[in-house]
Amino acid sequence: MSIIVFGSINIDLVATTPDLPVAGETLLGEDFFKVSGGKGANQAVALARLGIPTHMVGRVGADDFGTELVNNLQTSGVQADHIFVDETVSSGVAIIIVSHTGENQIVVIPGANGHVNQEDVERLSHLLPEATALLLQLEIPITAVVAAAQVARRANIKVIFDPAPAQSNLPDELYPLVDIITPNQVEAGQLVGFSVDGEEQAAKAAAVLLQRGVKCAIVKLGYNGVFCATAEEKFFVPAFPVHAVDTVAAGDAFNGGLAAALFEGLSLHQAVLWGAAAGALAATKPGAQTSLPDRFTFDAFLRERGVGE
Q: What residue spans define the domains of the chain?
């Protein structure tokens, strides 16, 4: 059995500068690095590093970035046979400028991610008989996300949906197809139309999402913890205290930990703990996929904090 991740695959081009440039200004930068990213690919790597058999379904361009992205996924243990190489467009790219204060400017060129369509859903559908869950995000066209959720529902496969980047106008038909939705507090606020800034507001947002048809709503509150609600239970999990260096991909790590625990047959409460632990670990290292923990590090973190497996 395995888990399928359907979503974006990006290369991140990151430059660091003392300050962010204003319009028309040329600045001398200090450093440059290139790293694999994309929410879909990040979640696939998060799962694979925790030892879960994982298939990535998506698109890259027929360029050097595309080759590098696929190779990096395979090196991390992700099955990449169902990634389509699109010769009509470039690979997805994020151009990122980061200042000393941590402020950033980001330009995302979707490239091949923006071309994901029904053909990719068909490739995904061939994997469903051997899958236990499908992970989705919002860096590919929403029509493809809905179609993927539909085929997963017909196959009785659990759908775990990360509604990021934040959107306020998701189609109503998507919610009933989702088993678990995992917005952070900003994304939850976008979805429900009111500010979500603590456990009480998270509970209200989760109730709205349940009313829309999802089976389980998990609202991630960063260092303030995680609130989870289903029709049968509601609970809060405090955050694991760590020295945060960079929260990039912490949300993707959360979904990887959550899905890994469910794959291994653990309870929902334990799965949320795993998600919180994976997210906390990812925040202690810089970068996206470079910050995602391996299983040895993850298990040691849980043991040190007295969290049973």
A: 2-10+38-91+112-161+240-304
C-alpha distances (whole Å) from 150 to each of 17, 54, 217, 249, 298 are 45, 20, 19, 27, 33
pTM higher than 0.90:
yes
- Write the CA distances from 206 to 215, 218, 277, integer angstroms: 10, 7, 21
Architecture of domain 2-10+38-91+112-161+240-304: 3-Layer(aba) Sandwich (3.40)
Per-residue pLDDT tens for 161-217?
Answer: 999 988 888 999 999 999 999 999 999 999 999 999 999 999 999 999 999 999 999
- Tell me which residues are annotated as active site: 252
